[in-house]
UniProtKB/TrEMBL annotation:
Coiled-coil residue spans: none
GO MF, one annotated term: pyridoxal phosphate binding
Organism: Lojkania enalia
Signal peptide (residue range): none
InterPro entries: Aminotransferase_I/II_large (IPR004839), PyrdxlP-dep_Trfase (IPR015424), PyrdxlP-dep_Trfase_major (IPR015421), PyrdxlP-dep_Trfase_small (IPR015422)
Keywords from the named record: Transferase
Pfam family, any one: Aminotran_1_2
Protein name in the entry: PLP-dependent transferase
Acyltransferase recorded as keyword: no
Domain Aminotransferase class I/classII large: 53-441
Transferase found in the keyword field: yes
Amino acid sequence: MGAISDAISPSTKPKRLINLLRGWPNTSLLPTHLIDRASHKVLTNKGTAYPGMLYGADPGDPRLRKSLAAWLGEFYKPPDPIPEERITITGGASQNLACLLQVFTDPVFTRNVWIISPSYFLAFRIFDDSGFHHKLRAVPEDDEGIDIEFLKRNIKESEDKAKSDGNDSPHLKPKRPWGKIFRHVIYAVPTFSNPSSKTMTLRRREELVRVAREFDALIITDDVYDFLQWPASLTPQDLFLGKTILPRIVDIDRYLDGGAERIGADGFGNAASNGSFSKICGPGLRTGWIEGTKKMAHGVSQVGSSRSGGAPSQLTATFVAETLDNGDLQRFVFDVLQPAYCRRYQKILAAINRELVPLGIRLPQADRDVVGGYFIWLTLPKPVKGAVVALRAEATENLIVARGELFEVPGDTEYAHFEHDLRLCFAWEEEEALVEGIERLAKVIRALKDELEGSSGQTMQPATGEGEKDFW
Ligand SMILES: Cc1ncc(COP(=O)(O)O)c(C=O)c1O
């Protein structure tokens, strides 16, 4: 018995992997039992099984649109109910970002895609695929969620340049009655952002809608974390979290200054909200929704791939509709997910305050009442670099963290660069591993700081990004 265990001393045993990069839900937070029950119910009744197994309607499963409209109305509490015509079922936020670009942009006429930065890095390729590789522009995120003056200045310059170049009509996309081509796209994650975890203030949301109207921009928001919210304070608070803390940008566009359908406007509005069941049910469902004006929701439902095949994810949409209709999913989100993510957040945050803050690490928007989402953004004390920490953490501690540069807009890093930052995800790892992950990170940063104080530069080359993909 003793011989083998004696041979492997604790110091030579490899540490188990802790991955704080991956932005997935932990498997314990997947409601497989609810989908099991819902799918059984759908598939054992011909009235629901056949529509689920056949091609669906362009705007998606009518039952899901109806129950979603009701639930979103209860959660976001707009002044009027949400009619189901404002909603189209999608294959999730990523898939629908691609569809929105197909219907509403032209890679020549559309001048730029303005991306609040640091940004959700997996969106970059979706913009690339639609021809925007050389047109991506970073807009710095400040403490209110966007440097709006920067955007105003730069979008105006871009517009002036397009005018002087004579770029005044769509080049590649024909005119379609269900669509329009916007001059600009603005991409944001306004609530509990990935990666920064920041929430954009109400006044910035309003200003952003005004800028979008002035410059004929479509604001595409990924509102995928809105339901995952909890009180920031460790002491219990009397906050009702069954309702949003702020209106979405799409809600603001619906009502501000006469609303999206005001007289004289074309009725498409300037905002599209990408919702998703990935974070509140399971990403494998590949099911989500878009909300916008009726014209916007209809327009995206007319993308060629939906005209041919009907809305994506038809069968899983029918399962989700069942879980919403019987109230299972709503209860799961509020009674299971919110408390579970709150607990995870509080554990990791307490460890950060204990282990990392004394080392000079800072967190954004420290004074919020309500926080949420999947991520924590850390700014390291200079000259410690995120890429060096990430490399060293993997090599010496078997700990995976995301270096800030991953979230920089390719080709536009002058005003938004993140070489001294890290992103941590507290959703994927086992709950017990979160504190240990922070302790390992503190060890790495402490050692690096000591080395830096004793020498003139970084002691390791930054990570190149190769191999990171294995941990996404
Ligand atoms: C901001 C943001 N958008 C989109 C997605 C992906 O959403 P979906 O699974 O619905 O495509 C994620 C997931 O990490 C995300 O953080």
